[in-house]
Structures are given as structure tokens and as C-alpha cells.
Amino acid sequence: MSVRSAILQQMTDTAAQQKKTLAPLTDGLKLAESGMDSLCLALIVAALDDNLGLDPFGSNPPFPVTVGDFITLYENVA
User: Fold this and answer.
1) What is the pLDDT of residues 50-73, one digit of tens each?
2) Which CATH number fits domain 3-77: 1.10.1200, 3.30.70, 1.10.1660, 3.40.50?
3) Helices 38-52 & 3-17, crossing angle to 10 degrees?
4) Model's pTM, two decimal places?
5) C-alpha torsion sign, points 39, 3, 31, 69
6) Could you state, in order of their start, the residue ranges of all structural domains in the chain?
7) Inter-residue contact 43 to 14 (CB < 8 Å)
8) Across the strands, what pairs with 27?
9) Per-residue DSSP letters for 2-14?
């Protein structure tokens, strides 16, 4: 499974668990407009750290604005 597909699946799974309705996940979709809240994003980051062993936030990068930015952040450390 690619990093991109793992992230998109985790976003979908977390939104479902938190009973959130997601907008269609495209690279240009702003995270703030995705239907996820900050708790969802925190859960996604924790799950990706567990599942992929990746934590791109350790180097203090700028916070991603879009879904594409979020994916790129992870792909750059993979």
C-alpha cells in the first residue's frame, strides 16, 4: 500500500469512527473544509505513526493546509 493510499484510507476510517461526513478527498481540498476536526487530524497522525512508523511533524514543518500538502509531508519522510 502506498503512503498516499494509507493516508486516504486512514482519513476515511477516522472520519467514520468519529461520525464525520467527509468531503471528497482531493489534493486541493483544504483540511479545514474536509469535514474533519482537530481531534480527527490528531487521531490520523497518531495512527499513521503507529501504522507507517512516520512522524513528519518532528522536524517542525509548516502545518499542511490541504489534503495534498498533508500527503506530501508524509511522502517526503517516507
Assistant:
1) 999 998 988 778 889 999 999 999
2) 1.10.1200
3) 130
4) 0.93
5) positive
6) 3-77
7) yes
8) none
9) -HHHHHHHHHHHH
